Every structure is written in structure tokens, then in C-alpha cells.
Amino acid sequence: MKLFEPISAWSHEIAAIRRDLHAYPELAFEETRTADQVASWLEKWDIPVHRGLGVTGVVGILKGTGGDGPAVGLRADMDALPMQELNEFDHKSRHEGKMHACGHDGHTAMLLGAARYLAEHRNFAGTIYLIFQPAEEGFGGAREMIKDGLFKLFPMQAVFGLHNWPGMPAGTFGVLPGAMMASSNTFELRIEGKGAHGGMPHLGVDPIMAAVQLAQNLQTIVSRNVDPLEPVVVSITQIHAGSADNVIPNEALMRGTVRTFSTEALDLVETRMRELSEQSCAALGCTVDFDFDRRYPPTINHPEQAAFCAQVIQELVGADKLRQDIRPSMGAEDFSFMLQEVPGCYVWLGNGDGDHRSQGHGLGPCMLHNGSYDFNDSLIPIGASYWAKLALDWLTQHR
């Protein structure tokens, strides 16, 4: 392992920043304190800062002393989740109902660690943009930063992202060309029938029966319409109807999620869902209002940038710490919006199984979006060194 020695020497200071961020989590587009902290540290290291993209986004502009050259972007997310922390260690959340349960505090800290090193070693040509993004957790902060001019104000030839990954051995990296994470989409079906007495169903039109049959029919999209080699998930996660034992209601509501690794598969699923919804409900005398919301596109790594990341990882931590046999995740990530605009790559950094957690952690597993999660601070020198080496190597190779 060839980590950057200065980063390792003061990584405990970056860990202290991480724990402070963990103790004061902020939700999407509310990351005011976090953004203030990030901007303050960047400015302390003489890195000019631009604020306000995506409401609370921060961009550090780090120019080398070697003159003009290409530009590369490194992105970390800053927001927390609306959930209660179960941990009781000293840096647990001070904000009820808010928690850094996905490691964005660690992502921010690792990029700050790289920023400090790069600010002290500016003998490169070109520009490194340090992108601290709000609102990854379901609100599309990356999309909002792009709408506000991220890539127009700060043109770059490549952009890179990273996420910690529990269950992978701590300090290992996972990278794939192509699909790394799925698209995230939601649907809502509002089925209208005709209410009646439960003992006299012939006088009504039962939306519950329509919902039951439709739930079965929707699963045939995956089993009979989609190519068997194309991963697709259609999950109905909510069905709401009725208010009394002896009343057939007027309406039934169904909600759920669709995940795909390609836009083509998503187009097919949405089309078939609409057709099946209308036809199945009509067959039972009901009408349906179908709403489909495409939230995050699939996270698709560009092959050239994925190969570059793999090379950087091997040189940094050794080939034995690089995993290219991982399977992509049906989770979603709004870094996908950035990859639609600029070539780049998104990698996973193993967070371990939770043995790193301090005494006082919750009883649950150290998994993402779990109340017992905590970021593994031993990753800070690894992740920060990865960011620094990736940026420097990329600028050197693309001079």
C-alpha cells in the first residue's frame, strides 16, 4: 500500500472533522452548517470557493502552479437521512430524526483530506474542482447543481465519484465499466371503482380486486416482456384501500419502485405498466390514474475512466485490493446525472462489517441506511490518497 505519507500523518485531524459532521447531520438542501464547515476548511488551505449551486453546494477551485492544463472534478455528497440514530457513542447525532447513515460525512471528510494535500502540493498543471454536493438522498442535488451551471462555470474533461460500501473488506475498492448502480423510479396507481356494502358486492365495482389482479399482472412484465438477461425489478411496496370491514371502497392506491440498468429497459417497463394498468382495470369496470416518476437514471461508468480508476487503485493499494468481479447494485445514485454530462467513473470503497464501531454502537448491522451504521475512519487516509493520486495522475496523463 502506497498511501500519501502526509495524509496518513494528519488523517486523525480529518477524522475529527468527520465525527463533527456526523454529530450535526443536515437533510437535503439544508446543509448550511456542513457547507460552512467545508468552505471554511477550503479557504483555510487557500482554495477559492464558489457557493450556492444546488442551494447549498460548494465547489473548491484548486489550480496548479504548473500553468494551464486540463480540468478534472472530484465529487463528495454532504446530506444525511431523515432517520433516528441508534448509536450512543460520543459523536452520535445531536439532531433528533436525522442521521449520517450512508457515510456522506466520511465522503466529505475524505475529499477534504485530499484537498488539504493537493493545496500543499500544487506542482501540477491544470485545475482540480472539488465538488461538495447536497441532496443526494432522493432529491437530485447533482441535477440541481448542473441546472445551476456546474459544468458551464467549471468546465472539466472528467468527473469522478466514490461511495463507501459495507460488506466489502475495509480498504478494498470495487469498480466496473458500464452499469454500476440502477435507475430509481417510482409509480403510483390510483384505481377508481364504485363503493358498496360488503355484503352486496354486485352493486359496486371493487377497486381492491382490480388492485390484486393488477399486482399479479405487473409481475409478468419482468417474467414475460423483459429480456431474461436484462436485470429489472418491479416492486409494489404499498397498497392502501378501505376503512371498514363491511364497506367496498371507492378507491385503491398502489405505489412502488422500478429499477433498471438501461434506459431502454425502463422505457419498456413504463410502457407495459401503463398498458396493463389501463387494460386490467378496465376489464373489471374500474378506471386508473397512472403516474410514473423517473427519479435517478442508472449510474453508467465510462469504460476509459473505469480502466483509469482501476489502474490508480492497483498502484495505490495493490491488485489484491481491487475487485472487478463485483455485481452492480439495484440501489441508485444521483452521480448518474453528472456521468450523463461528463465522462467519468464511480467506485466503491469497502467499509468493512462494522468491527470498527466504537463502544456504544446500536445493535443493528453496520449497513447503509441502518440506525447502527457508522463510517469507518480507517478509510480516510486511503480514500483521501485515492482522490489525490487520481487527480494528479489524470492531469498528468491528459496534459
TrEMBL record:
Mn(2+) binds at residues 102, 104, 137, 163, 369. InterPro entries: Amidohydrolase, Bact_exopeptidase_dim_dom, Peptidase_M20, Peptidase_M20_dimer. Residues 185-279 form the Peptidase M20 dimerisation domain. SUPFAM superfamilies: Bacterial exopeptidase dimerisation domain, Zn-dependent exopeptidases. Signal peptide: none annotated. GO terms for molecular function: metal ion binding; N-acetyldiaminopimelate deacetylase activity. CDD domains: M20_Acy1-like (cd05666). GO terms for biological process: diaminopimelate biosynthetic process. The keyword Zinc does not apply. Its cofactor is Mn(2+). The Mn(2+) ion enhances activity. Keywords: Hydrolase, Manganese, Metal-binding. NCBIfam families: amidohydrolases. This is Hydrolase. It comes from Alcaligenes pakistanensis. The lineage of its organism: Bacteria, Pseudomonadati, Pseudomonadota, Betaproteobacteria, Burkholderiales.
